[in-house]
Design brief:
Chain lengths: ~400, ~280
């Protein structure tokens, strides 16, 4: 028998199973980075987010473009057409190229250009071939509006930037003619061994039918990045506007909103303005609330996004409160300051912050409330559709089905 | 049947493949850089913005992402401007034989047009913007420079005025830039008023004269005693300028907008209204 080994057992000798040693700090950090990267990738590539908000932003931003163009329609020649020559020194050093499209147009040609841009804006608003009408509307709008930079304002800037970012997104998934067409017309497959001409044709047909033409992973990524960039852009607007206001003595004093409201161009209803500014306390609260809501908006949003998975009520209500103050602030700007299109633009881009669940709930509620109205609509339109179908020799079936 | 969650769409897919992931991250990097540059541009001046460099930022931002959100801040707008014009009808070489119109406040006319209008056209702010720009430039001029712009420039080109203003410039590059801004706005207001005056007093208008007013909203604390509309304007008066002609299409646009004045408004020139060249 061999001598008893009296040495204490070493790790080499120990055959008892043990749990594996925990990862080092560096490994844990790398794991965390990996998890963060995977989460970001999943969010970017996995699906398209905020589709209802994007669709609503499309409708309202299109409404703003239409509003601006229709409001200025009667004075179009004076502002943007041949009569805009009074602005020549600034037109000569213009930074944008789209206005060169309209610089040599006579009044009739300019009228056609103007009407075509209105038609594109209408198409974008209704969701008709948005990938075509959207860019053309943006181009037309910049070509018209930037003919007269001296009369431009920040509303033009946010409209241009906001619509550009919306163009990266899928804005016609719902509440659009594109969505209706997509349901009715099938996707044409692009076949690997088919001829180039056949595949190009398939892509064009798909594009016209609002069916997917780019790979899903790429479309999702571009949509979600556009969504994030637009959200960040809007947050920046509020935060920087709030920061500038905190630097001003009259904003600190709580009376700043009184001063611009006295100017004639921002006082369409003198009685309403005088009523609002009569009480110092009301002016004070409105001034402070404006600064507070703008500064706190990013914080409220971030808090809501970080806590919503836990179903916490307080951050959700806080965000909704701040959001409603912001929207109320824009509605006030529209009425009290006669700036309806700027207000509509901001409300349009704010729409992306409303959750899909809220939009779906609102849609269901409206559908239920509007059932009678819908029936009445189809009672009126069905005979017309049937008559038109018969004229074309097509049996339309039940058009309201 | 259960309703599918609205958060899951037909676009659902998986992120696969190193090539695709590289594209995703490249696009993300572009979006991130864009967003950071915009952030630096819109925030109040700060050391990070200075480190990146104003010109570098501007190169990326302007014109397509141009924006500024210091709207009504830090100082809210509290100044109102107006532009008042009168016209001369007759031969510019024989000013004593011509006729002159009364002064007409274009901005006051616009005020009447926009009352109770929640969606005014942009044209209603034209004289306010032009007047505001002219006033801003004038405020930076010396007393001598201010005297110069009061002179008439009919036989001489307005460029002569700009050259003389530059000779009197004692404020370096900033002063020169201000003169350029004045020249741009003076030409714009002259062009605007030329077409406006011809639409109001007829195609025979050969000279126009204008003045640009400014008034300030009284302090909030005296809002019940002093009304903004009762505050008188303080004017910069400019000498006579030769009208700048425009195409028939351009003039027609003004003719369709401006209210025509009765011909009886025109009166023979007197000593006060005779153009005084370059003085």
């Amino acid at each position: 028998m061999s001598a008893v080994d009296v040495r204490p057992p070493t790790s080499d000798d120990d055959t008892t199973p043990r749990p594996p040693a925990g990862p080092g700090l560096g490994e844990a950090f790398l794991d965390l980075v990996d998890r963060v990267i995977s989460t970001i990738e999943r969010w970017l590539v996995g699906d398209q987010h905020g589709l209802y908000g994007a669709a609503f932003a499309r409708i309202l931003s299109g409404g703003a473009v239409l509003g601006i163009l229709i409001t200025n329609f009667r004075q179009r020649d004076l502002l943007f057409g041949p009569g805009s020559v009074w602005n020549k020194p600034m037109q000569d050093v213009a930074l944008y190229w789209p206005p060169t499209l309209t610089q040599n147009l006579g009044s009739t040609a300019f009228l056609v250009f103007y009407l075509v841009t209105i038609a594109f804006a209408l198409g974008w608003t209704l969701g008709w071939h948005t990938k075509i009408t959207g860019p053309l509307m943006l181009l037309g709008n910049v070509a018209i509006i930037e003919r007269i930079p001296v009369l431009g304002d920040q509303g033009d800037n946010i409209l241009r930037i906001g619509i550009f970012l919306l163009l990266l997104m899928n804005v016609s998934e719902v509440w659009s003619l594109d969505a209706r067409r997509r349901e009715r017309r099938e996707h044409v497959a692009v076949v690997r061994h088919a001829s180039v001409a056949a595949n190009v044709r398939a892509v064009l047909v798909n594009a016209w039918r609002s069916q997917p033409v780019v790979p899903r992973w790429l479309a999702n990524t571009v949509h979600n990045l556009g969504y994030t960039m637009l959200a960040f852009q809007i947050v920046l607007i509020y935060f920087s506007a709030g920061m500038f206001k905190t630097q001003g003595g009259l904003w600190q004093h709580g009376t700043a909103i009184y001063y611009p409201l006295q100017l004639q161009e921002y006082k369409p209803f003198p009685f309403l303005t005088d009523l609002l500014t009569y009480s110092g306390v009301v002016v004070n609260i409105a001034t402070y609330l404006t600064v507070f809501a703008q500064l706190i908006f990013p914080v409220a949003l971030l808090l809501h996004l970080m806590t919503r998975r836990y179903g916490l009520l307080a951050p959700k209500l806080f965000f909704r409160g701040v959001y409603l103050v912001i929207v109320g602030f824009h509605v006030s700007i529209a009425v009290f300051m006669a700036l309806p299109w700027f207000a509509l633009e901001m409300i349009a881009f704010d729409a992306i912050f409303v959750s899909t669940a809220t939009y779906v709930g609102l849609q269901t509620w409206l559908a239920r409330r509007g059932e009678g109205l819908r029936e009445l609509w189809f009672d009126v339109t069905d005979p017309v559709v049937i008559w038109w179908g018969r004229r074309r020799g097509v049996d339309p079936g039940d058009p309201s089905a | 049947m259960s309703t599918p969650s609205p958060d899951i769409t037909r676009h659902r897919t998986e992120a696969t493949g190193a090539g695709r992931r590289s594209v995703v991250w490249l696009l993300t990097a572009v979006a991130l850089v864009h967003s950071v540059l915009v952030m630096l541009w819109v925030m109040p001046d700060n050391p990070t913005r200075q480190a990146v460099g104003e010109q570098r930022l501007q190169k990326y931002i302007t014109p397509y992402f141009e924006q500024s959100w210091s709207v009504f801040a830090p100082v809210p707008r509290r100044g109102g401007e107006n532009v008042v014009v009168r016209a001369f009808v007759g031969d510019v070489d024989k000013p004593q034989d011509g006729k002159v119109s009364p002064w007409f406040d274009i901005t006051a006319d616009e005020d009447q047009r926009i009352k109770y209008l929640v969606n005014p056209s942009r044209i209603h702010s034209a004289t306010r913007r032009l007047g505001g720009n002219i006033n801003a430039a004038m405020a930076k001029f010396s007393s001598q420079q201010k005297l110069l712009v009061r002179g008439s420039y009919v036989q001489e080109s307005p460029r002569t005025l700009v050259e003389r203003l530059k000779q009197l410039n004692r404020s370096g590059l900033a002063g020169a830039a201000n003169i350029d801004a004045f020249a741009t706005n003076q030409e714009m207001v002259t062009r605007f008023l030329s077409m406006y005056a011809r639409a109001r007093w007829g195609q025979d208008v050969t000279m126009i004269q204008f003045r640009v007013g400014h008034r300030t909203v009284p302090n909030f604390s005296v809002r019940h005693e002093q009304k903004f509309l009762d505050v008188p304007y303080t004017y910069y008066v400019f000498g006579w300028r030769k009208v700048i002609g425009a195409s028939a299409d351009a003039q027609r646009a003004f003719d369709g907008y401006v209210r025509r004045a009765p011909a009886t408004q025109l009166r023979p020139v007197d000593e006060e209204s005779t153009p005084q060249e370059g003085r």
